[in-house]
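Give me the 3D structure for 3-ketoacyl-ACP reductase.
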Amino acid sequence: MNRLKGKVALVTGAARGQGRSHAVHLADEGADIIALDICADIESNEYPLATPADLDETADLVEKAGQRVVTAAVDVRDRAALMSALEDAVAQLGGLHVVVANAGICPQGNHIPFRGFIDAFDVDFVGVVNTIHVSLDHLGSGGSIIATGSIAGLIDQKDLATGGGPQGPGGAGYGMAKKMIRDYTKALALTLAPHSIRVNAVHPTNVNTDMLHNQPMYKVFRPDLPEPSREDAELVFPVLQAMPTPWVEPEDISHAVVYLASDEARFVTGQQLFVDAGAALKIGV
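Predicted structure for 3-ketoacyl-ACP reductase (285 residues):
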């Protein structure tokens, strides 16, 4: 407890899923939270995204942990809006020490037009870059930046979309974004190391959130069925992992985020941490 006492942490995609879990776990360790989320749907992404009520619930959970929280509905693709929201929040909370660039979408299906590639890439990579870059003027020595990647960044790009595969343009954009996060975080880690600001990425496998549990994703895992159910998909979810589990839980990722945010990881930078039940090993990395 109190590994992050006195720190302020920014979390994007904070209204539900991994982002909410990260916000709450960081708060449990003493951090005040800036919780941002788009709180609206994106047309090419066919499963519903978080709502304002979801973001309010995250704020309630942070306050129950005894910490201050500032929330805003912001699209990470809009750098100017991000900058404005962050400046307001930093003024209220008195600083910024941790950045968790977590917001993401995963449009799936070969029926989705090329807009799915644009939206997935813009949220999942450009949004990460926007979040981090507007934060840099507020971070000082000891600051920690953590980006959410994915084991999808390990899959050959041609296998994500070409040939009419089930992932389609959105899957291709998602995979490209996650590939670029790996190189981007390494390069930024080298750039910021002389300033004692650390940059790391966490790469999950399937996580038990709404991004996994939706009809378009079920069809990716069960293309043999016209309308697969959750139960149908759960039969094959374990195929990705070396360990016998269909997914990891959001808190499994949050434990890694808290460690990387804390002073326990004060000399850990440029790392690509796979919390994936051995999925990367199975892919061959």
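Strands lie at 8-12, 32-37, 69-73, 98-101, 144-148, 198-204, 272-275. Let me know if you want a second pass.
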